[in-house]
Design goal:
It is a single chain. About 35% of the residues are buried. An eight-stranded mixed β-sheet has the order 7-5-6-4-1-2-3-8, sandwiched between helices. Helices cover about 55% and strands about 15% of the residues. It is an alpha/beta fold and about 325 residues long.
Length: about 325
């Protein structure tokens, strides 16, 4: 039985050899037949060259490189599309998620779970702002998105049964969170807890802008709450305007009309601000709807290690990429 490990990588040239050694030792101790599918998200530090050398030593290593930077979630989706195992483990390249957690994930899978989350128990070395943002995001997804199956502390590492991987391959959404999508899909889910380790080398490419984009993608993909809030906000502003208008009429009747244009100006600015927020929210939904109708591929594979090129799906992807370039 083959176990696949999928790793998105962006500028991880220093971490990949260390992760390979620990992963190989873990799999040898478990006595598993395994493969490691690493997707290079168009790194600039020679990560793919490191993968090529590792694949030359060990044919179980399969490396793919994107033609452009697409983000970690797209790289993870690519890895899931090309993994061949009876179960697939997603593992980060920065060694914050220890490969040794795979034994616990497999134990839950063998007990019948089809999605096994590795929930974060402790995150040493992370800033208070990062921890607060993470807690806010996962609370938002559990409440607004209705994704109660996701661990409250969040998860970057997980295991999927082959049934789930095949079901995931049917989804073609381009603006979404893979973790949120997996939580929405259902299936039998379980969670194991672990302590997230500090990053071994390099700095994270997970910037604030990318985090905010993930929040917007996640909310718009799984909830209509922002649009409903627009409706509620419109009713509230209209009610406020009616109250203000009534007040001004009453003041005029009793002989003390409101002096100047200050009240009118406040009302206009308030209404204009609410309308702009509403239009921006609606625009986010419309933009994502437009992106889905274009049917652009999520990613293009620029290169692959010889161990990966043998796979029919990778060969076809490379042919499509070269055809597009021609």
């Amino acid at each position: 039985m083959l176990t696949s490990v999928v790793t998105p990588a962006f500028n991880e040239a220093q971490n990949l050899p260390v992760l390979y050694e620990r992963l190989a030792a873990t799999m040898a101790a478990l006595g598993l037949d395994w493969e490691w599918v690493v997707v290079d998200d168009h790194s600039s530090d020679g990560s793919f060259e490191v993968l090529t050398r590792l694949a030359a030593r060990d044919p179980r290593v399969r490396g793919l490189r994107f033609a452009r930077n697409c983000g970690s979630h797209t790289a993870l989706a690519c890895g899931l599309h090309h993994a061949a195992g009876a179960c697939v483990v997603a593992l980060a390249a920065d060694l914050q998620d220890p490969p040794e957690i795979i034994a616990e994930l497999l134990a839950e899978w063998r007990q019948g779970a089809q999605i096994v989350w590795a929930g974060r128990r402790d995150r040493p070395g992370e800033t208070a702002a990062t921890l607060a943002f993470s807690r806010l995001y996962h609370r938002l997804m559990r409440s607004v998105g209705g994704l109660d199956g996701m661990p409250a502390s969040g998860a970057d590492c997980f295991l999927l049964d082959r049934t789930v991987v095949d079901a995931f391959a049917r989804f073609r959404e381009t603006h979404t969170s893979i973790l949120a999508l997996l939580g929405w899909m259902g299936f039998r889910q379980a969670t194991v807890l672990y302590d997230k380790a500090p990053r071994l080398h390099g700095t994270s490419g997970w910037t604030l802008a990318k985090k905010l984009r993930l929040v917007i993608d996640s909310v718009t993909s799984f909830s209509a709450a922002p649009i409903r809030m627009m409706s509620y906000g419109g009713v509230a502003v209209a009610g406020l305007g009616a109250v203000l208008a009534g007040h001004m009429v009453l003041q005029a009747i009793v002989g003390t009309p409101v002096a100047g244009w200050s009240a009118v100006l406040i009302a206009v600015l308030l209404l204009a601000g609410v309308q702009m927020v509403m239009l921006g929210t609606l625009g986010e939904y419309l933009w994502r709807a437009l992106a889905e109708t274009r049917r652009r591929p999520q990613y293009l594979i620029e290169r692959a290690t010889p161990t990966a090129e043998a796979a029919p799906t990778v060969a076809a992807a490379l042919d499509r990429t070269r055809g597009a370039g021609a």
